[in-house]
Amino acid sequence: MRAHERFLKYILFDTQSDDRSETVPSTEKQKALGQALLQELQELGATDAQMDENGYVYATVPATKGHEDRPVLALVAHMDTALDMSGKDVKPRIVENYDGGDILLNEALSIVTRTADFPDLKKYIGQDIIVTDGTTLLGADDKAGIAEIMTAAEQMLAGAYPHPEVRIVFTPDEEIGRGVEHIDMGKVNAKYGYTIDGEEIGQLEYENFNAASAEVIFHGVSVHTGSAFGILKNAQLMAMEFHAMLPPMENPAATRDRMGFYHLNTMEGKVEKTVLTYILRDHDADKLQQRKELMRRAAAYMNEKYGEGTVEIRLQDSYRNMYEKIMPEHKELIEYARDAIRAAGVTPIEDPIRGGTDGATLSYMGLPCPNLGTGGHACHGRNEFIPIQSMDKAVEILKNLIERFA
Ligand SMILES: [Zn+2]
C-alpha cells in the first residue's frame, strides 16, 4: 500500500488534543486511532504491538536475519492534531497534476489556497496534492509521519530490505507539549531514533532552541495622586523601565536563523502590582544563560534604586537544544540521514528549528532523536496540503536510512 492511501484513512479519525484537559491522553478519541494503528501493526506482523493506558502505541519490527546485533532504531510520530483548527470530518481532495495556480478549496465559502501566500506550492507543479475543503485542517501533521512509518514497516516486514530491529512509537498530545510526558522509555528501548514530523520533504532537523521563561513582578505603592509626591511608586512605570533595559532588537520580530530573543508574552498591571512574563530563546546555551543573567541584573539594579523587594524575578528552564546530545557523539545520525535524503534525489534542508520538538526532549531522556520532514506544508490550518509524491519520497528516505543502520 502507498503511504497516501493509509494517510487518507487515518485523517478520518478526529484526534485533536486539548490543552485544558487533565486526562491522559488529553482526549479519549486519540485512542480510537491508536486502536486502529495497533490492529494494522498486528496484521502487518509486527511483534509486541500494544497500546498502553496512556494511549501510546509501541510495536517492534524484528531485525532481518544476521542483523540482530545491530543497535535498535526507533521511529516516532504523533497521533494528535493541532488546537488551532478542527480536525473533525476532514474532507480531503486530490488535486491531480497540479498546474501551478491558486487552488480553490471551497467554492461556497470562497476559500482559496493562493500561491502568493503559499509560494512553496510552485515546487509541486505536475504532482498530485492532497488538500482540504477549507473547513478543517488536513492532519498531515503528523498523520503523514504515521503513514510513512507504517509503509516502511510494511516493506520491512515483507523482507524488502535488510534492517536492524526497529521500534515504532506513536504518541498522543504532542501539539499540547505533552507528547513524551508519559512515554515508557523501557518500552522504547532503542539506541537512537528519529521523529518523522514537521514539514517539507528533505527537512533534517537536529538543532533547536534552548528555552527558558521569566516572570517579573513589580510591587508599587498606590496613593491618591494629589498627595503622591515622594510616596507613590507606580509598578507599571517600573515594568516599562525594566523592559527598556532589554536589547530592543532582540525580539522575535527582529530575529531569525540562529538569533536568540526575549519575547514579552504577557503584561498585566496596576499601580500597585504589575507582572510581565517573558520567554527567552537561544540556540547557544551560553547565550541563553547570558540573557537570564541580564534580566537578573536589571532586577537587581531596580531593587537598589527603589528598595529591596520592589522587583521579584523567577526564571525557569523549559527545554534544551538537542544538538548537544547528537553532536559530536552521534553524528552518524545526521550523516546517514543526509545520505538517505540525497539518495532519494532530494536536497537536504538543514535549518535550525526556532522552537522545540519532542525529539529534543527525547534526546535528553537518552534517545538522541533528530527530525525528518513528512512532506506536509502549511500545517495547523485550513490551507494544509501534502503532495502524494513527497509521501512516497519520505518512505524511500526511510528505507535508505534504515538500510544504513543495518
Ligand atoms: Zn507535528
Describe this structure in words.
- The protein has helices at residues 3-10, 30-44, 140-157, 185-188, 235-244, 285-306, 323-326, 332-343, 358-364, 388-405, and strands spanning 47-51, 57-61, 73-78, 93-95, 103-106, 111-113, 129-131, 166-171, 192-196, 204-205, 210-219, 261-269, 273-282, 311-317, 371-372, 386-387.
- The chain has 406 residues and is an alpha+beta fold.
- The chain has two domains: 3-207 and 321-405, Zn peptidases (Aminopeptidase, 3-Layer(aba) Sandwich); 210-317, Alpha-Beta Plaits (2-Layer Sandwich).
- The mean pLDDT is 97.
- Residues 78, 141-142, 174, 197 line the site of zinc ion (ZN).
Keywords:
alpha+beta, 4-stranded antiparallel β-sheet, 406 residues, Alpha-Beta Plaits, Aminopeptidase, 2 domains, 16 strands, globular, binds zinc ion
Reading off the top of the CATH hierarchy, the class of the largest domain is best stated as: Alpha Beta
Lateral strand order in the biggest sheet: 1-2-8-3-9-15-10
Question: Distance between termini?
Answer: 24 Å
The run of helices and strands is HHEEEEEEEHEHEEEHEEHEHHHEEH
Unreliable residue runs: none
| Average pLDDT, all residues | 97
Strand content: 15-25%
Largest sheet: 7 strands, mixed
Query: Helical element count?
Result: 10
Number of domains: 2
| Count of distinct strands | 16
